[in-house]
Amino acid sequence: MAQKPSIPKGTRDFSPIEMAKRNYIFDTVKNVFQLFGFQQIETPAMENLSTLTGKYGEEGDKLLFKILNSGDYLSSVNPEELNQANSLKLTTKISEKGLRYDLTVPFARYVVQYQNEITFPFRRYQIQPVWRADRPQKGRYREFYQCDVDIIGSDSLLNEVELIQIVDEIYRNLGIKVILKINNRKILAGIAETIGEADRIVEITVAIDKLDKIGLEKVNEELIQKGVGEEAIFKLRPILQLKGNSEEKLIQIESVIAQSEIGLKGIAEMRTIIDYISIMTLDTEVELDLTLARGLNYYTGAIFEVKSKDVLIGSITGGGRYDDLTGIFGLPRVSGVGISFGADRIYDVMSQLNIFPKEAIATTQVMFVNFGEKEVRFCLPLLSSLRKAGISSEIYPDSDKMKKQLNYANKKGVKFVALAGESEIGNGMINLKNMETGDQQLIKKEELVEFLLLKTRGCR
């Protein structure tokens, strides 16, 4: 019995229509990245595990897909180690590589490896798939695309402002109404310092990052499990519930963490960014959210998260400032800031809202019906002329019944069908059928290209 075909959970196949829609997103994002002066790079799907591990925190490390060494990968493992069933210890011996978890850590590795060839500040963008051994669910996949844009080699807060402008431009072009939430890891560090848990900043941010998903009580339970004291949790609760506009929140939190130098620095950075935003015209709503934490360990300054206003799906874009990510690869004190657009979640949002433009899923514009050898020889030069003019066109490969050929054109969404039978060929004409309206029109073969350019491109 033949094996039933399937794919791993959390991965997907994409049909031609789905790919057309996805490419519309990629093209929109890429055009904005290039508009802002960013250059494209690519990195391998797999990296050395030494590059990936320890960069995403304990929870992130658990989600790394590891690749078994080629050949006899158990040859370096003795029976005693196998019997111990210590998966962490075994992994270091049987797996040296893993699939990338995100595009930021490979980017940091790239910057260090090619530092002598890069012009700083380096403005890079990257659109590639990443993999996470997560539990698949709606809006969360094991294989998905990220569209990253980063500026590295500059401490200027103008870079954060540039990223906010990019968010605004991309979602305006895509027609998605979003809210951009912003915070600063220095403020979170100041909060941890103020409540007496400065050494547990990682545990606190990882827990706070789940506030929207699991609620305040569950966050408190997790903090207790992580060893954060009840008194500290009591002090933290009102901080996470501050209300008001951005400046009102900053005034309130400033009074709470007034004794924290790092916290005050974070507040000053937020005020600078918010001040720059105030003099620009943005469609995107920007909100200071002191509960925003972004669980990744490498963030050190401003952090961002973008959500759709009309579809409940979680974050569709996120990022932030990292001051020393390259330091782990031997190039210290090189600050960067970046943001990542989740193409798959953006796709889901646009699909739910049904806002993909018709031209995004355009298929063949003209199909020539195949009546036989004589007719094919008449149509082939015309087909070539249409393609040279940039008009997507094809000829049905077999001289099947007319009904079958027209059904094919209908299913594929072809806009025009060109018919050339014995009568049309004798008069040097093409009978052009509009598949949307059913109207037919005789066109001189010499005028076909110009006529279709007017029809397919809206020219006058």
Written overview of the protein:
By secondary structure, the protein is an alpha+beta fold. The chain has an eight-stranded mixed sheet. Strands 13-12-14-15-16 form a five-stranded mixed sheet. Strand 9 and strand 10 (315-322) form a beta hairpin. The chain has three domains: 11-177 and 310-358, BirA Bifunctional Protein, domain 2; 185-284, no CATH class; 363-457, 3-Layer(aba) Sandwich (Rossmann fold). It is built from 18 helices and 16 strands. Helix 1 packs antiparallel against helix 7 (158-174) and helix 8 runs antiparallel to helix 13 (261-278).
Strand order of the largest sheet: 1-5-6-11-10-9-7-8
CATH superfamily of the largest domain: Bira Bifunctional Protein, Domain 2
Query: Oligomeric form of this entry?
Result: single chain
Low-confidence segments, given as residue ranges, are none
Q: How many distinct domains? A: 3
Provide mean pLDDT, rounded. 90
Q: Quick one: biggest sheet?
A: 8 strands, mixed
Task: Output the CATH class name of the largest domain.
Answer: Alpha Beta
User: Helix/strand-derived class?
Assistant: alpha+beta
Shape: elongated
Task: Please estimate the helix content.
Answer: 40-55%
From the alpha carbons, calculate the radius of gyration and give it in angstroms. 28 Å
Give the termini separation: 60 Å
Secondary structure: number of strands: 16
Helix count from the secondary structure assignment = 18
CATH topology of the largest domain: BirA Bifunctional Protein, domain 2
Beta-strand percentage range? 15-25%
The CATH architecture category of the largest domain equals: 2-Layer Sandwich
